[in-house]
Amino acid sequence: MQNFDFYNPTRIVFGQDRLGELDKLIPASAKVLVLYGGGSVKRFGTLEKVISNLGDREVIEFGGIEPNPQFETLMKAVKVVKENDIDFLLAVGGGSVMDGTKFIALAASADKDHHTLLFHGFNPVPVEKAVPLGCIATLPATGSEMNAFSVVTYNEQKYPITSPLVYPQFSVLDPDFTFSLPKEQVANGVADAFVHVIEQYLTQPVGAKVQDRFSEGILKTLIEDGPITYQSDDLAARKNFMWSATSALNGIIGVGVPQDWSTHMIGHELTAMFGIAHGRTLAIVLPSLLRARKAQKHDKLVQFAERVWDITDGTEDEKINQAIDKTEAFFNSLDIVTALSHYGIDDEGIDTVVANMEKMGLTQLSETGDLTLDIVKEILLAAK
Amino acid sequence: MQNFDFYNPTRIVFGQDRLGELDKLIPASAKVLVLYGGGSVKRFGTLEKVISNLGDREVIEFGGIEPNPQFETLMKAVKVVKENDIDFLLAVGGGSVMDGTKFIALAASADKDHHTLLFHGFNPVPVEKAVPLGCIATLPATGSEMNAFSVVTYNEQKYPITSPLVYPQFSVLDPDFTFSLPKEQVANGVADAFVHVIEQYLTQPVGAKVQDRFSEGILKTLIEDGPITYQSDDLAARKNFMWSATSALNGIIGVGVPQDWSTHMIGHELTAMFGIAHGRTLAIVLPSLLRARKAQKHDKLVQFAERVWDITDGTEDEKINQAIDKTEAFFNSLDIVTALSHYGIDDEGIDTVVANMEKMGLTQLSETGDLTLDIVKEILLAAK
């Protein structure tokens, strides 16, 4: 196991009928900006319930944060924050709303050149303070409700940002709010959470037994309860899916182990260039990436096959092949097509993706930096 | 899965050679009280290393916090804190030192009747502030380094206390500091961590799949790497043992599930009355308790047998019996004798334990309150 730091001060409020507690979670004197997306939280009544639980607090609404939140949209919210002396941000929505709110929280404390906040990658954004924020998470997927990460789109590129200042002070996770989700978004969320675990798990082995077993536990739960949530209104499965998605990216499985976020890096390009939903891009890239990286990931792939997919027969190579095939079939079972051609992307499109990654400096992916752009191209061609 | 809250703001600094970071973890202007136990941290040089990393800060030492820390000892430290305007407490040691430091942090903000702070059980101690504290954890066992709990002995009784104010601000977990531990304490720590997991896991099933699998992952790791740590200086195993012990009681496996702390409640009496080390009392009580509670814990015991001990053959009852026998054999493999007679406790002693629990109002144990004192007596008689 490698040395590590772990810190996560977000308070999780999990379960049905918890909105009444907003009153004690947000300072009584706070002037609150409630942020949301395309309006489904309005249509399904979630927003109204949230606001009615804010009591006498002054509340301003900001809707219209789009999927893959755009810098320009978020800057409009920053203006609202500044003009109205907002002192608490309440995100009501999925990953995009929560991610967007985190950027707003940071950008509101900067006076100019807000776009430069996006250029620090996984180093903390160099600002001294942020507006405190909380989340009502309506889509289990990104884990944004319990981490300090955000992804913002600027000039058609996706930029990851992070700062310890944007851990949500609290996140309410009420499975009831997910029943109004389109089925497709549930599928995307399952794929997203699954790949979050994989990127922290399928790397070089370092003997971190607790973390490995936690990862395997989340993967098995997603394999069991993801499809049930996709196909039905089963509440017990939905709760497990929600907590799996949060646990997948709150840091606890990633401590002390190498991490390989290649699938996300490649997937982000597919979203930025072709508008494919984030979870879907990961499901397209992952099986192909694992096939291309069998040698580098050999030991962990065997462990994945045996412990997650319960594959006991065959040689190690056969187990690995089966495990990757089962992973792809799992995504397909959620009606996620894992072929680029389905999304109209041909060889030329692949070349553009690779060229763009080069422009962005994304030329050495994986935990050792050995996943070069030739290999990215090979992975994408194999995913046609 | 039940509704739950999760909150744990402790920063973990895990790994070798991390003491240099104390300088940024503790405010530069802090006046620090360094607390420790019987002096082994002094003999083995840990204390000196810690203090040398505190730089120019004013440092006062307070040693002599005993195993099962005594109210009277801790009140002496409270006096030191008040007289010297201490504004940071740094615990260097195992569970007793960390638990004691938490009580000191709370008691220092009370003016009188400090003993009444002990009488709130698992409700937060009603004080408004506490002195901030950090830990250098030298004994993986209690999990105190990453939770808000403490157990203090007063008038020969053990009192649990808790307050969100006593989450350590940070805990340094350096496996190197555990190499000087007596073997017996390693064994006790393995037993303690194992039973912490069991008390959150072997209860009524509520379909909390992530939590169950996290628990099983920690148990399997303790079964594998506990004995290796007991018998050798293997660093990789020791790291996994350390992180298992912390993960066992930082709240993450206990969210949304029923908890049954009966083994601890009974074990605390055995420590308070007969001075048996905490971990050992748990190892004595648990196998006997599980045998007496097969019916109530049936479903989870089968799951425990199959998933933790990999028992696949036999009827469900046979699996359960095997799993309990293997659990007891596991403790015995660490040279922990699991018979009360070994510790000189006879029928009369057992009667005294039961009478004392009655006096303390501990008459309805388990998650449903159905474990009465008759059953406690039966459990202890079977553990003779």
From TrEMBL, chains A, B:
Domain of life: Bacteria
TM region positions: none
Organism: Pseudoalteromonas phenolica
Record flagged with keyword Oxidoreductase: yes
One GO location term (cellular component): cytosol
Cofactor or coenzyme needed: Fe cation
Keyword Oxidoreductase on entry: yes
SUPFAM superfamilies noted in UniProt: Dehydroquinate synthase-like (SSF56796)
Positions of the Alcohol dehydrogenase iron-type/glycerol dehydrogenase GldA domain: 9-175
GO MF: alcohol dehydrogenase (NADP+) activity; butanol dehydrogenase (NAD+) activity; metal ion binding; methylglyoxal reductase (NADPH) (acetol producing) activity
Record keywords, A-Z: Oxidoreductase
Domain named Fe-containing alcohol dehydrogenase-like C-terminal: residues: 188-357
Stated name of the protein: Alcohol dehydrogenase
PROSITE patterns with a match to the protein in the record: ADH_IRON_1, ADH_IRON_2
Family: Belongs to the iron-containing alcohol dehydrogenase family.
InterPro entries documented for this protein: ADH_Fe/GldA (IPR001670), ADH_Fe_C (IPR056798), ADH_Fe_CS (IPR018211), BDH-like (IPR044731)
Pfam families on file: ADH_Fe_C, Fe-ADH
